[in-house]
Design goal:
23% helix; Rossmann fold; single chain; alpha/beta; 33% strand; 203 residues; nine-stranded mixed beta sheet; four-stranded mixed beta sheet; globular; 5 helices
């Protein structure tokens, strides 16, 4: 059972539909106690970092998320969900995140690029990982974001993307994964990634 955390940040139903389409058991959860029986947890989201973090805290999810991760439950952050995994975001000032992956969230540099990045881009895989099983290297995924992660430890990068500069589009630390793109909007590669996540066994 995959628990999809609903903390009033974005439309969760595209993600739920992508899981339903593949026959993957899932449910949207709004109360911290509903995470207790989950085999896997997904933290989705769109929008700005600070209100997303504030809503996650207001929902009482933070201590339970930390406890479930410590218990070995596979955890996946998507888009803003990835960014919340980091220590600090520079969006609208400095704001603390969950601190599960060392590093910062920074804005794309000013210049010739269109910001936000909206559309398809390739991801270069850095090593084998169960999340990436049977997905071709340099597959295209669908991105919508103005900020991206920078890692304190490059070993936490599973996939890198170029958009004016190189940034980590897929990260992992232990049983915590994050993807900057939207797998539920990324056709076959994204569906496969979600299926792979559902198949990862708790630690």
């Amino acid at each position: 059972m995959i628990a999809i955390i609903d903390y009033d940040v974005g439309n969760l139903y595209n993600l739920k539909n992508a899981l339903d389409f593949q026959g993957i058991a899932n449910r949207i959860v709004r109360e911290p106690g509903e995470l207790e029986g989950a085999d896997h947890i997904v933290l989705p989201g769109v929008g700005a970092f600070r209100p997303a973090m504030e809503r996650l805290q207001a929902a009482g999810m933070v201590p339970v998320v930390r406890a479930r991760i410590a218990a070995g439950v596979p955890f996946l952050g998507i888009c803003i969900g990835l960014q919340l995994l980091f220590e600090v975001s520079e969006e609208g000032g400095e704001h603390a995140g969950l601190g599960l992956i060392p590093g910062r969230i920074v804005r794309f540099p000013a210049g010739g690029l269109k910001v936000p990045q909206i559309g398809w881009n390739q991801v270069a895989f850095q090593r084998d990982d169960p999340l990436l099983a049977d997905i071709p290297d340099h597959s295209y995924f669908y991105f919508v974001h103005s900020y991206h992660a920078t890692l304190a430890d490059p070993a936490h990068a599973l996939g890198l993307t170029e958009y004016g500069e190189t940034f980590p589009a897929i990260v992992r630390r232990g049983n915590v994964w994050g993807v900057q793109f939207h797998p539920e909007k990324s056709q076959n590669a994204g569906l496969r990634l979600l299926k792979n996540f559902a198949a990862i066994l708790p630690a």
